[in-house]
Amino acid sequence: MAPDPVLDRLEAAFSKQRARLLETHAGRWALFVQPRDRRRKPEFVGCFDDEHQACEVGYRSTIGRRFLIKEVLEKDRVVSVPLAVPADHL
Questions:
Q1: Are strands 67-71 and 43-48 parallel, antiparallel or unpaired?
Q2: Range of the domain at 47
Q3: Degrees (nearest 5) of the Cα angle 30, 14, 20?
Q4: Nearest to 65 by CA among 26, 34, 40
Q5: Contact of 53 with 30, CB cutoff 8 Å
Q6: pLDDT value of position 18
Q7: What DSSP string describes the chain?
Q8: How many domains does the chain have?
């Protein structure tokens, strides 16, 4: 898979702020948005109680821009889904 510079910048912005976010928003969902001017740093929009709220705000407020939603945890969770599992068995 080819590198994705926008996603890399969003991930880096989250990583830079992870420690600060853990102090006040542990377990919540952070929303970062790539500005229209890609030379600028990604913007931290806020934290939400669940990923659905964060996603709704992301879609509503970032039309035409990419965004990242991540749970504020010390270490990212890894989810593995085998390719051979039918969708109706998940």
A1: unpaired
A2: 5-74
A3: 80
A4: 34
A5: no
A6: 97
A7: ----HHHHHHHHHHHHHHHHHHHHHTTSEEEEE--SSTTSPPEEEEEESSHHHHHHHHHHH-TTS-EEEEE--SS-------TTS-GGG-
A8: 1
Residue position matching structure tokens 């085998």: 82
Q: Could you give the C-alpha distances from 64 to 1, 8, 13, 17, 86, in angstroms and in order?
A: 23, 18, 19, 24, 32
Please work out, in degrees rounded to the nearest 5, the angle formed at the alpha carbon of residue 10 by the alpha carbons of 59 and 23: 95
Task: Please indicate, yes or no, if residue 44 is contained in any of the structural domains.
Answer: yes
Q: Given this model, what pLDDT does residue 85 score? A: 58
pTM of the model: 0.81
Residues 35-83 have pLDDT tens digits of 888 778 999 999 999 999 999 999 998 888 899 999 999 999 887 766 6
Do the domain assignments include residue 88?
no
